[in-house]
Amino acid sequence: MIDKLLNDRSYHIEFNGHLTNHIKHAVIALHGLGINAGRIKDYYDNYTKLTPYGMGLELPKTSKHVIDSTNWQHFLGKRTSYSSYCDYFEEEIKNKGLEQVLQEHMPTLLPGWAGALTHGTIHLGWALDIDHPWMIIEGLAYMAFSYVPCHLENAFTDSSLNDKNVFDSILRISTLWEKRKVELTDWVNSLIDNEDLADTDLIHPELKRSGLQYRIARLLMQGHPEIYRLPVWIETQNVEESWAQLCYVVTLIYLAKPGDFLLLHLVTSLFAMKKIASRLPANESKNIIKCYWVGLLCILFSTTDLSKSAKFFALNQVYSFKKDEMTYSLWEQEWAHIIARALEEEEEHNPKLVYVMHQLWKEYGLTIYRAAANQFTSTPLLPPSFEELPIE
């Protein structure tokens, strides 16, 4: 049943313009949390008929272009030919094998990981985690379809930064925003409002219907000097230690604003990036972390509302890599309660959150992941711009 659901090709990857079809992520999450196949099928059917946004999924769309090896990069982010990208990647994998296709295409695709609010990355990373062939193809296609580059070529390792680890870096960025909040907020807002800037025409007009995705796209395209200053730990620290610290700190960011819809995506996409990195040569991992770090900062800057450094410091004092006693029977009972709540949530981001937190808790044993799993989000209200017709 699970394989059948993940193989389903009845619906487009998006609906109402650029809202992502999340249902296969929910299938993986619920299955990973031990929910029986019948309940998952019910969840799937309910979502396809009526998403939390109050509308159903849409039928597959006809591609405007035929994607092949000569033009696949030309149509990145053009949002015209999703099904043709699927055909292209399916044929590539058939001819070359998955590992070679990943090695050939991911260096190009990864700088665009934050497009579509990171959902292409989530789709691919989660598919790789369970090794599902068709969903992997969809993930590659969606990353290409929704590509918005973070311009990693502008980033450089800044040896003048004294950050010893990921937490030091986020504390520095938070302090920067406290000291320069008015200046940086004005800069972000002027960036969003100024359509005369370079690269504005490279952002698909459909994203303007979404204040959120458009803001992020503008930050990704324009960048900021502080975003491009890479801390030394990315180069000097053991890669596995960097992943562990990123998981901890990004969860800390979420706990500083529990239930924040946007920040939740930083958690679920980080899990995906880690899975993607595990399928690529080891020497690519630091570059993947750089991509994630630059995109993370672009997303945080776009909010103009970072949590204060004192709050991060206090939360770190509470959790600071504290571990649970994994054999303690009460934790199993608590997780069962959290999972039961997640199953009843029509908002599919919540079972996704619980799944990722449960996976990280099992991997690292840290108390923070159990704490964050309880912090459910709610479906955001769509802005009035969604009353307008989508721009294909």
Quick description:
By secondary structure, this protein is an all-alpha fold. It has helices at residues 2-7, 23-32, 37-49, 82-96, 98-109, 119-130, 133-145, 166-179, 181-193, 211-222, 225-228, 233-236, 239-256, 261-277, 285-303, 309-319, 329-343, 349-364, 367-373; strands at 14-15, 19-20, 156-157, 229-230.
Describe the protein in words:
- This protein has about 400 residues and is an all-alpha fold.
- It has a domain at about 320-375.
- It contains 19 helices and four strands.
- The chain has a two-stranded antiparallel ribbon with strand order 1-2. Strands 3-4 form a two-stranded parallel ribbon.
- Helix 2 crosses helix 18 and helix 14 (about 260-275) crosses helix 18 (about 350-365).
- The chain is globular and about 50 Å long.
- The model has no long low-confidence stretch (mean pLDDT about 95).
Extended strand count? 4
Shape: globular
Contiguous low-pLDDT stretches (5 residues minimum) are none
C-alpha-based Rg, rounded: 20 Å
Count of helices?
19
Mean pLDDT: 95
Structural category is mainly alpha
* First-last Cα distance: 33 Å
How would a textbook summarize the main sheet? Answer: 2 strands, antiparallel
Report the portion of residues in β strands.
under 5%
Could you state the order of secondary-structure elements as H and E? HEEHHHHHHEHHHHEHHHHHHHH
For the largest sheet, list the strands in their spatial order.
1-2
Fraction of residues in H or I helices: 55-70%
InterPro entries: Questin_oxidase-like (IPR025337)
GO molecular function: oxidoreductase activity
Keywords: Oxidoreductase
Protein name: Questin oxidase family protein
